Structure formats: C-alpha cells, structure tokens
C-alpha cells in the first residue's frame, strides 16, 4: 500500500505491495482454473480483457479510458456501448472499459502507470472500494507524487460484505430469526464438537473460507470487520484497539477456522459449486466471506458473476444465504475517480459518463445483477427468497484511516493461520527448453519464481521442496531436497538454484507421494498443501493410473484433506489432469500458458497460504 519498503516478511506491507502488483499482472494473458475450468474473472479484485466494446466516434472523437474492478467491468462495458457516440462540449465521446484489479491498479497509479506493464493509462479509476483510493492518496503523498485523485469520488453502485453460509447450516444456527455475526463464528470455530453442537456431526468442524486481505477487497473488509467485532466499536478504530490482547485473541480464533486463503472468492465459490454438483455442498466450507451480490450470483449457478455465463449452469441444490454480521460490516462502494492528468475535454466527458451511470436506467441495470444503488438502496433482487435481506446491514463500518489499516494488516500477518506446504518442482528434460525473448529456460524462470515467492512465507510457516522427473533412485520419480521446516529459506533457495533438467515426467506417482507425505506430516492448526508445478504429462509407463490417483486423493465428505494446488506450466502441460487433481482436493489449478508469467502465478498460488 502506502508503507515504505521494509525488510520483506510474509505478511508485512512490503509483500502486500508486491502481491497486488503481481495480482494485477495476472490479468494479462493468465487464466486461473478452479476445478471445473472457470477462468479468472470473478470477485471484486479479479481482472479480464476488454471485449465486446463498441466505439462510435472514430479518430476525431474523445476517448475516455476507465479502469474498473471486474465484478462490474462487463456491466460497465454494456453501459458504455449504449453511451458511446454522445456529444460533450461539441466532441463525440467513446468510453472504453478496461478490467483491472483494484490493488494492482492502486499500485500502478502510485508508482507511475507503465503502459507496457499495466495496459492503457486510465482517465478514470473505479475500484471496488474507497479504501483503495485512500491508500493511493497516502502512498502518492509519501512518494511526493502530488494529488492523483480528488476527495470527491462518488459511488456508482454498492454491495455490502456478508458471511455467506449454506442455508441448512445458517438455519441450524438460528437464521433468519437470530442475529448472527463474528462472535458466533468464533464460538463455533472454537467448539471441539463442531457442528455436532447443533445436532449435525456429519458436517464435521466449522470451516471458514476467506480471501487474503493483501489481495482481495472482500478479504480486506472481512479482516477489518473482525477487528471491529473484537473491539465492539462501530467507528474510530485505533492502533491501540488493534494491539489489545483480547482483540488479537478474537481475530486469531476466527483465522484458525479458515480452510485456506486465496486471491479471489471465486476459488471458494467454484469449489463449492462443484461440491454441490456432487451432493456434498456442506463438506467443503461452512461459510465464506463475500460481497452480497456474489451470493446472488452463486445462487443463479453463476459464481463468476459474468453476465455472459449466466444460465450456463443450473442453480445449486443447496443455496447460500447472507449473514450480515451483527457487529457491523463494510461496503464495497465502487467509487468513481477522475484522475488528475485527465485534461478538460476528457474530464468533462468522464463526468458526463458518471452522470449517465447515475441515471435510472443504468442504476436499474446494476440492480438487475444484485448490486445496490449508488446511495445504498436495495433493488428487487435483494430479497429473502434470494437469501438476502433488504433491511440489512443495520450497522455500516468504515475502512480505518491509513496508519490504523497498516497496523491491522501487520497484526493479521502475525495472527493468520500458518502454512504447512511442500513445493514440488518438475525437473524433466523439457524444462530445459529456452523461453523466447527471455534468454532463459523454463526451469530458470520457474526457479526464479519460486525463490521470489519464498519471502512471502513467515516464521510460523513450514515449507519443504521436492524435485521430480523419472527414476530418481530407489524406484521413485521424486527426490526430497529439503524437508518441511520453519525459517529454511536459505536452504530452499540453495536447492532451487541447483536444479538441473533431465529425464521424463513422473507425474502420477509423484503427485500421490507428495500428497501422502504432507498428509503424514499434517498439522491440524495449519493449512496443509502441496504446490505442484509441471510442464508436461505423465511419462512413467509403470506408474499408477489417473483413476487410481484420483481415487486415492479423494476423501470422504467432512474429512480434512491436503490441498494440491497445481500449476500447468507451458503449452504442453496436462491442464485437464491437473484440474482434476486440484478439484478432487478442494484446491485450485493455475494455468500459466506463457512461461514468462510463472512469477505472477507463484504469487497467486502463495496467496492461498
């Protein structure tokens, strides 16, 4: 954010800055596949390309470029297509919408927009929440860059953060008659009986899905909301409040209930949809912190929220309902900021487009996708029948001032759930292939990406390293280079630097062995996972079959598992198989079709821990 660079540690502000830069970079040419193959594009901080844009003015017109968080980017494109061709001040105007992650856009603006890295320079920025603008202003002031945005940045649509739960689980807690919140989540998370306390032992322990606040607006708002809940305040959160031991215990208790973190809520919602398809909706997560509109999207069978995919998948058997924390919640208020370098002509056009967005027709369009209006009024979709409550939230919270937000995220970094992770690197011969335009091999880039990701792990994380190809001795395709341990970054870096490509790809046996290894060393108080990178297909003719592998990775509903996050590296990687592996273990499969994007992919993967 705005914090000066300090020594890099897992959850300090410095890696946050790096993370959101790289998260924004994921927008360009990178797709993230969640089990069923949904591409990156859902939630308040995801990105996508500008498609379907209709321009009307030609070379003589005024073009206004808008960088928008992607949960609303497609809607804004549709609106811009209807707007384009209008005259403002005697000039024909075209508005072009570019989807850009809120955090990535904030950092790009703060350091100086680079069109080669960041895409077309925007004249208007509309992130998911005002908090990102506050961070930009503080960061720019610290870098003596002057004012980039003014203080007047009106909302174009709103949606509150909620705790979404499968309806039967919420009913077991007393919903809708009982007001629920973070304190109820903490009580259930800390109860060793889990759901058995409410007569449902078959649901196991309580599991929370929550995105990483260093990547995601929903994760940031949920984290801030938990600190407010711990203090009992509804405003003016202070550094002293954040440091209070009772506050820290409360937040730590909530964090210990999570299944894993992530860079987007789409990971959780797509995995939940897959579980629902299998008749096991309540075996994956008990609750997930998302925006209210995402509950509606999920209940339509469209967890990505993309209007183009609405209706492609049936509605879930078990719908979600929205719990509005009784302690209060934050809004994603989608501010509209005209940037300082927009000249008079573009500024006039940008303000005219803002006026257009506030007109009834456009506000009704936002409402048709379960956004609330710019002034917070619920539309006709915000109903009990859709699992939502138009009378809520009763209490709205505000993002803390910058220094308190800084303290909040640093405190979270110390309290978040630790990781127990094994990194498995493909060192087969094909990893020695040159990557055009880089002067490096695929293994060079993968090695560098893994080394660059290591500082994001903290002192409480245990990280190990394996390599694999074929015949690594003892009839195995894999070799342990470093056991899972804390504070072993120098050892890991040394071993990564020593990797040499050779041989074929022993994918199936290595996947199973790494999964079983972490399972045998699992920590019930940590996120237990494998990060598995490969650029090929299984080439071990003596290995187990894919069907056998999947059957051995499968766990019974409600049981804990080791999540296998896979990376398909390069065009020859067996993406479909990797998706099956990740889907079976309730994780995510990442597709890096361009080898040069692997650094970005590693950053996204590590956001899960």
Question: How would you sum up this structure, described in words?
Answer:
By secondary structure, the chain is an alpha/beta fold. It has three domains: 46-156 and 334-397, Periplasmic binding protein-like II (D-Maltodextrin-Binding Protein, domain 2); 159-331 and 400-412, D-Maltodextrin-Binding Protein, domain 2; 418-606, von Willebrand factor, type A domain (Rossmann fold, 3-Layer(aba) Sandwich). It has 21 helices and 20 strands. A seven-stranded mixed β-sheet has the order 1-20-19-18-13-16-17, sandwiched between helices. Strands 6, 7, 8, 9, 10 and 12 form a six-stranded mixed β-sheet that branches. α1 packs across α3, α1 crosses α21 (598-606) and α8 (217-231) packs across α15. Mean pLDDT is 86; it is low at 1-50.
Provide the low-confidence segments as ranges. 1-50
The first-to-last residue Cα distance is 20 Å
In total, how many beta strands? 20
What is the share of helical residues? 25-40%
Estimated structural class? alpha/beta
CATH homologous superfamily of the largest domain? von Willebrand factor, type A domain
Radius of gyration over C-alpha positions, nearest whole angstrom: 24 Å
- The CATH architecture of the largest domain can be named as 3-Layer(aba) Sandwich
Strand content is 15-25%
What name is given to the CATH topology of the largest domain? Answer: Rossmann fold
Tally the helices. 21
Query: What would the principal axes of the Cα set say about the shape?
Result: globular
- Give the total of domains: 3
CATH class of the largest domain: Alpha Beta
Sequence of strands across the biggest β-sheet: 1-20-19-18-13-16-17
**Overall pLDDT metric:** 86
